[in-house]
What we know:
The chain is an alpha+beta fold. It contains 20 helices and 27 strands. Strand 18, helix 9 and strand 19 form a beta-alpha-beta unit.
Amino acid sequence: MFSDINVKVIIGLFCLSIMAFLSHRLGIVDTSYPILINTNEKPKILINSMYVDADVDEKQGISIQCKLTKQEGYNFCGIGIPLTDGTRSNGLDLNKFNRLAARITYTTPSDKAKLKITFRNFNDTYSNLTDPVSLKFNSIAYAPGLHELPVVIPFDALQVDNWWVEQYKVGFGNSQVELSNVSYLEILTDGMHTIGDYHIEIQSIVLYGQLITEANLLKLILLIWLITVIFLVTFQHNILKRMSITDSLTGLFNRQGISNWTNKKISYRVNRQKLYMFYLDLDDFKKVNDTYGHKVGDQLLIGFSQHIQSYLDSIENIQYSFARLSGDEFALVILGLKESQIKNFAASLLCVWDSPILLEEHETYARASLGIAQLSEEINTFDELLARADSAMYYAKKDGKNRFKVFNQTVSQDIFFRKQTAEKIKNAIIQDKFYLNFMPIFDAKSLNMVSVEVLLRANDQTLQSIGPEVFIPIAEEYNLIKNIDLWVIETTFKQIKNEFSLLNLIPLIFCINISSVELHNPNFVKRLTELLELYQIKPQQIELEVTETSLVEADLMSVSTLQEINALGINLTLDDFGTGYTAFSQLINYPVSCLKIDKTFIDNLSSADKTKSTMIKAILSIAESYKLKTVGEGVEYYEQYSFLLEQGCDMIQGYLFCKPISWEDLKNSLCDPNQQKLRQEKMLNLSKNSIT
């Protein structure tokens, strides 16, 4: 079966064929050449015989007055119109024209008089530059008085004058009409048989033709169809043949291809101590895509795979299979290396990436993290070997990227730790061993508390030594994060309902972090709506925070989920903004109302490197353009606060003002009328000390 793209190509080609044919019929591909207009500044040549007095007037068109004084011999009168710059050998090619339309009136003493129109063609075979008569006479004679104006004359009616053929002894091949190099157009009387006045009035002469004839157009369309069908059939055949085992972008094996290769080697009972799996994952590949576009990203993947393959081909006495598994993930299986060679080989592989990869318009470097696993007695399939290499790669990235890690006992123990932690998280959810803290957020100018960020903390002894920065990623990995998100949301709603009177007097917005997993959770918005109704929470009291990195690969479902949340009346904040490399122009696609400037930018405001401050200015400027609120998080020093305030940041959050506090402490702070004044006085004193 043809793929969708092939069907689209065929439909598109069919539509283009119909359009081309109709365009031809409607005359869209017609072309014209008004001779008098294009030769207006070229001197005309008055042509007359011995017994004819002639005069020409070019005020309006061309008017030729001729008077036959004596009827003897062959007499003629007319005009020659140069079609070139005067060089006879450099004429116009009129082959694309097939007719002319002439507005010419001819007044004579005789009603049967004719005019003769002649295209004078130059050809080295029969023409001589010093002899103007040697230019071929491609002519037609007609009686103007018998036709309505304009008179349309098809070029098929032109004939070569017999007297010219006989005089210059031109062979049959050159005695045919030829319009490839026309130097002159002559309009003459075709014989003058009565003494008297002859008047030729030339108003316009226009050549008409087609850029391509209908027959040639049909031939071209059929040829394109034939070529396209052959190409599509061949392309489809090759795709079907290769797609099951080959990656279409890089030409390497895909997962199925390398899996087949590896499983065959395992089934052949190869030396297990000499077969190794290398799992490669490009570092910060998303940044390349966002900075330069997916086209450059694809070129990087191709260049990266070519670098590796060239290096592997240079190594003797090894067998290997190299594959792109998906996205920026690659797998390499090598047979033939000794255990003592593995680390040196991995280090050499990292050095291969030190060479720049040349793209069409860029030169860049690829960096990758590498996980290594050895085939052992307890491993019997490709998938088991890949799982170990994948785990090792995870720890290589965790240790700082662009390095390798061999699957060993430490990695195995860490995997065990993550599984145990996931079990502890599950138990803590069931036994209600979590609690909430609240991080106040203040208006930057008035220092009035306007909102709080809800923070998750563990009360379980087994999780007390493990912070959220550790157990939250594990919860996401083991699909427990949905339960945690709902627990945090529902617990917050309970607190708000319990303090309805206080929060009605002192409005406060509660900012709740949700995992990127929820953007692909079809039940999340439904459950959120149910909780709002159950606890009678006003949507305006809630603000959900999603990290910018969760939107780097946002798809239609993610954007749709955000829009549904926003439709409930809940505002959305983009957390850690500046770290996910979201294009500023993409902000319009997301229904967010607030940007949180990442702490890493604020931490480095006092350094000599002005990059961070420039980035903050850019974020604030863009936020203002998009009418978004801004929060500077992680503010610990007065200088940071002063800079953000000066640049127009709306809200401030950080240890400079308050650390995370319990619900009771939050209530006390809200009820204390002096808290705002104390914060203002603190900033004033810090300002004075800063000046001193």
